[in-house]
Amino acid sequence: MNRKTLVLPAVAGLLTPVLAACGGSDSGSKSGDAIVVGTTDQFTATKDAPAPLDPAYAYDVGTWNILRQSVQTLMAQPKGEGDPVPEAAESCSFTDSGSERYACKLREGLKFASGDPVTAQDVKYSIERALRINSDSGVSALLNTIDTIETQGDREVVFHLKTADATFPYKLSTPVAGIVNPQDYQKDKLRDGFEVDGSGPYTFKAEVKDDAIVSATFTKNASYKGSMKVNNDKVELRSFTDADAMGAAIDKGDIDVMTRTMSPAQIQKLDAGSDKNADLVDMPGLEIRYLAFNTDATSVKSKAVRQAMAQLINRGELVSKVYGTQAEPLYSMVPATVTGHSNAFFNQYGNPSVDKAKSLLGKAGITTPVKLTLHYTTDHYGSATKQEFQILQKQLNDSGLFDVSIEGHPWATFRPAERKGEYDVYGMGWFPDFPDADNFLAPFLDKNNFLGSPYNNGTIQRTLIPQSRREADRLGAAKSLTEIQDIVAEDVPVLPLWQGKQYVAARDDITGVAYALNSSSTLQLWELGRGVSG
User: Do residues 401 and 359 touch, judged by C-beta distance below 8 A?
Assistant: First the structure.
């Protein structure tokens, strides 16, 4: 096979892979050799986050990618795109016309990897447990439309919702709705450490050093019953300190696949076909980056300060200097390819303008330069993050209206500090829980939001979000979604920067790479196989 980038086209703005994969065969690995996958994700247990892999706590793309392999959910997102499909369930559907009663029937003979049967009572226990624990990660907010859960026999579970929620099937596909065994997970307490047990495609075992996962082994679960076809017997996930170390490992043959996060330089090299050891798969993605604000903090409490930043930041320059063709400027929290997107920030602010920003600050009586610190994480979104924040710093400071410094922190300390409100302004990324506009808005704006943000808008929370969720046809939700985006552009509790593509690199003999990620950046290890080098 020629070494070149495989570009997977988008249909109706969503990912629909049409290429089988790198390699000469689409058959799964029949050998005992594990397929080794590299990642720069770090998995660390700390005093603030001692249970990083508990489904009731985990809420980032890295930990979710572990849970999706091992903890089964009632529904799952398909490997291409489209509506969720039954996974642990045999069938699921709304049983009323108002999207307020959702019933599922479990597959017959479903078992945990331990051999214990999976029952409707286990589903009820698992989801009620996540709601009861209500961890400070904010993940339980995904389930906040649930009123009560009832079971009918061992295989049927019915969700009664507080309000209409057409996105509920998607929410049942997320790891917070993962089915756990009450024998392994206490009702009122998170499970500390790195053990994970479930009924998913794989069992999981971690190698841990200094309270961090060095590598993890996923072994095919012989008891698994679900919608996934598992094309290998074993996958090893290795965590690297940075993209360069991961790239060196694939060049030496120590790993077979590179996932997130490769550096822009690595992607450019692979794209040019100058790396003889790996092929690059390029696919549309829904990853976004944004600035978030502690709107109670003195430095940014005035809306005018946040608006002035929105008026000054040059997204085009930022993207071109750091990411090139690997990203695009973003003018809403909702990516441009998702139904309901509007260019709200461009409509509000237009092109970058120092004069307009100066006017905004002057009318609000803000003394300039405004002194700020922008915080970013050094090890969670890739090595280019520092350069990105250096450019943001320069853009703001060159205006003469701001005096900005930047500080980087490892994710293990960054995330707890952000949740505690210790940062006034900080950079975040978002990999959607599911590909719907609601999931790019509600997690940041609703009560008990993911960021722990003090921003509170009653119109958004009590009217517009519920109104948008009543629309089973998501085109019908566009009016409500646009109103939310317009309010966000006016109030600026968050400031979108860019949306990016996603990439996987693999050696020639690895098959299934085209489906290794879906548009929500879900890692689908079961798709990988070992074929014929070519």
Answer: no
